[in-house]
Amino acid sequence: MISLKNIAQEFDNGIEKNHVLKCINLDIPEGEFVTVIGGNGAGKSTLFNVINGNLRPTSGAIFIDGKDVVRKSHSARAALISRVYQDPNFGVCPELTIAENMALANSRGNWKWLSWAIRKRDVAFFEQKLAEFDLGLETMLRKKASLLSGGQRQVLTLLMATLQKPKLLLLDEHTAALDPKIAKQVMGITKNLVEEQKITTIMISHNMSDAIAYGDRLIMLAGGEIVMDVTGAEKSSLTPAELITLFES
pLDDT per residue over 158-196, tens digit each? Predict the structure, then answer.
């Protein structure tokens, strides 16, 4: 569903060139859940920025459903790609209510038809989707997003990102800022959403246990290159200690 061909990303500060990504080739079939790990400076965030259009790669091509999108802007890709960030504040408009935030998300890819009028059937739909998380959010539709806890805000962001099924979901360390109990809950919700909708997903994680437990495939980046790509039994048999050793090698 998504294919990266010979993707390279260089940054030139006028003194030297920093090769952050080096000839990345990656094919991800529709519905696959890929977890990406790697140390600081490995190129994980740059990879996400290249995929969703925040950066145009120095060279290479990006295909989504067979169409090269490398020249499409971030806004043009918004109808195809959803991204959930580490900071729970990034995914919502804090001064809008939960209902208003969800209405915006529900209009993704149809901005010209966007209206602030929220219909009764929309409210019923939002309540139904929120009730599935068993967090009481369905009773807070008139509450401003700024008044939610970090965990509640991240769950809302995750729901908004998948309300209209994206071609690709990017999870950018989306549980890193949460306490362990809430992070575990959000990961469970993530797993259910991705599996139920069969959403093609790439997740960056620094949690080695999560990297092994979640997803169909595990990729490690180092020095801007893919140095490990495992699936199935090979992935599930790994231990956090083994991954940490690979980080240090």
Answer: 999 998 889 999 999 999 988 888 899 889 999 999 999
95: amino acid identity, one letter? E
Enumerate the H helices of the chain as residue ranges.
44-52, 74-77, 98-106, 120-131, 150-162, 180-197, 208-213, 232-236, 240-248
The whole-angstrom separation of Cα 5 and Cα 62 is: 6
Q: Encoding tokens for residue 169?
A: 């979901």
Span(s) in the chain for CATH 3.40.50.300: 2-92+167-248
- The pTM (predicted TM-score) of the whole model is 0.91
Q: Which fold has domain 2-92+167-248?
A: Rossmann fold (3.40.50)
Residue whose C-alpha is closest to residue 194's, from 68, 84, 48: 84
DSSP lists the bridge partners of residue 2 as 28, 64
Structure tokens, 28: 């991800």
Beta carbons of 55 and 11 less than 8 angstroms apart: no
